[in-house]
Amino acid sequence: MTGNRRREMEMRSSAVTLSDMEIFIFPELIYALLLANIMSPRIWKWLEDPWFDGLARMKPYRRITRLKQYIMDHYAFNLDLDTWGLTTKDREMARFGEFLDIGVVRESNALFGYEGDRYYFDLDIRTHFGLDKYTTETIPYWKTETVEAMDAFCFKPGYTTGAGECVSLSALYAAALFIVAGIPLDRIYLLATPLHSQNFVDIEEGILTNNRRLVTRKMWCNGTALSAQARRALENERVTLVAHETGCIHTVYPEATMDPAVYDRFCGQLRGFLNTPLSDEVLGNFLRHKRDLQKCFQIRHGIHGAERYVPAEVAFHYEEGCSYLVTDKTRENLLEEIDMDQFLPQRIPGRIVLNDLEAYVRTQKPDLKRPVDVAQLKQQFACECINTEWAMESLIRFCHVEPRLPDASGKRFVREKEPLGLSREMGRAGIIRRLEEIRGTNRMAEMAFYAYRDLKRVEAAPFVLAAMERCPVSVEGSQALSPEAIIDRIRSMPDASIYDDEGRLAQPDEVWNYGRGDGLEKALLLGNILKHREPQRQFKVDIRGSRVSLLGGADPVEFATGKGLPDQVWPL
């Protein structure tokens, strides 16, 4: 197979499995997954749920928050290493080494020793994700799930709802924003960093999706634990990939397909979202965010006509048990909740009075981008227990996050020959027709059909390759079983595919994990297990109408199938 043909096969089969590594190598695939979810009937059915009654009368932000709660109720975050199994660095580089230099991969991909950001280096990435129990050559597949595979987690032991990892949730969110909330695709951007994936929605002041949650511009600087978690990726990581309906831009590739004017707008909108002018409220939020600084502050409060002082960390602690906050107009109510014996009759030596610093910020309105304002603010911050330089640097970073986005200046922009041109008004059937019309002239549309897993619309070879090469969980999980016991176990599974549509198939590890499948999917699962036990044996799946057989073993093993594929034979 020539280099171009091999790359094409790897890309098409990668669209089936959609591991984090595969999306890093082939950036178009993240949008292909979004399009596959838009083609799916599942999210369109959400519109029939009473939860979304009256949605059309709501403003965009209200529609989005309504959608957020639905996702919170129906999906959990999952990053279990055992779900989709493990591979090795050598195995992945044998696949992709001719497409991308290993040195470039190491600089940008967390699975290959990425240490580009000090935060994660200090954290110890492998320990954080549970990889420390394996050799340093071992990495997880971390496959991204379609909405059907996310929904099917409810069949997996330990789960009562759907689930998915961060890329799955971002693609689900993007599709649901389009279908349910009616947000045009040109307002939705998918962002990937080495360890995270999220969306930026360009409406009002902007919204970030973060796994199952949403983050508004106001929330970005509210100092809560949730916002701190949401800030982590953009504060500490480089953005490796941005995808949009017009195309993609990737940090390591010299060509980009996204419209350069669209990318320029996105960069400006995101930077605006991540930058907040300093105010007295933001200053208080900063102290909530930097808890170790609270011990350097005190809060003044009038009690029975006399000034009293309480340590700031005490006041912030009381926030956890009530609906009042230190940082807004409810502060007086919060301070009234604090026990009298927590207040002191005089100022606490060596601590800054937060009220005075707030008044300075409110009246002087310092601009943290002006050195003279920063110098004057440092004087106000100075006290015995605080490193003023460090405190100011932390405050500036809190208010002004500069995202490390792919540099457009050195890119060669090559637009897709045909734009996607999708609108919600087309409906699901119209969108599928449009994607079929342009699949030969738009790469993301072409790959969407492989991510969609419809074997009536794509050739079988990429799907079968992915099934035989990248489904280690069923192989590992069946090691202790005899061939006869494996066949019995597979036959005992419900004859129900996680994909409702004819022609769409689950991969062997999905059938194994969820304990169900159509007969064709079961035959592939059995073939995957037996092929790994006897790699030299020639197995094949023979499809004949409503019957499918796995051939090559001691005896043919037959199942019933309702997938409606034409008669054909798949060598394994």
Query: What's the gyration radius in Å?
Result: 27 Å
Strand order of the largest sheet: 8-7-6-5-9-10
* Number of DSSP strand runs: 19
Q: Which structural category do the helix and sheet elements fall into?
A: alpha+beta
N-end to C-end Cα span: 18 Å
Describe what you observe in this structure:
The chain has 572 residues and is an alpha+beta fold. It folds into three domains: 3-275 and 404-452, no CATH class; 280-399, no CATH class; 461-571, no CATH class. It is built from 28 helices and 19 strands. A six-stranded antiparallel sheet has the order 8-7-6-5-9-10, sandwiched between helices. A four-stranded antiparallel sheet has the order 18-17-16-19, covered by helices on one side. α16 packs across α19. The chain is elongated, with a radius of gyration of 27 Å.
Overview in brief:
This protein is an alpha+beta fold and 572 residues long.
Label this structure with key terms.
four-stranded antiparallel beta sheet, 19 strands, alpha+beta, 3 domains, 572 residues, elongated
